[in-house]
């Protein structure tokens, strides 16, 4: 992973809402899966924006 890509992902993770952070630690599998999917969508969106800005 390049330093730029790492930086982009780190900025996305820094902005993760508290509910996602809390639910990632949940023992409830449904809540945890929803939080994982939300986090993945947030990271994917940031990467899409970075990719289109590079074009």
User: What proportion of the residues form beta strands (DSSP E)?
Assistant: under 5%
Tell me the total number of β-strands.
Answer: 0
Indicate the radius of gyration in whole angstroms: 13 Å
Number of domains: 1
State the secondary-structure class: mainly alpha
Poorly predicted parts: none
The pLDDT mean sits at 93
The ordered string of helix (H) and strand (E) elements is HHH
Coarse shape = elongated
Q: Give the N-terminus to C-terminus distance in angstroms.
A: 19 Å
Portion of residues within helices: over 70%
How many DSSP helices? 3
Describe this structure in words.
The protein has three helices and no strands. With 55 residues, it is mainly α. The model has no long low-confidence stretch (mean pLDDT 93). The protein has one domain (3-54).
């Amino acid at each position: 992973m390049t330093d730029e890509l790492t930086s982009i992902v780190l900025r996305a993770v820094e902005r993760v809402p508290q509910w996602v952070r809390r639910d990632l630690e949940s023992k409830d599998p449904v809540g945890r899966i929803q939080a994982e999917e939300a986090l993945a969508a947030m990271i994917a969106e940031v990467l899409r924006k970075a990719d289109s800005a590079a074009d």
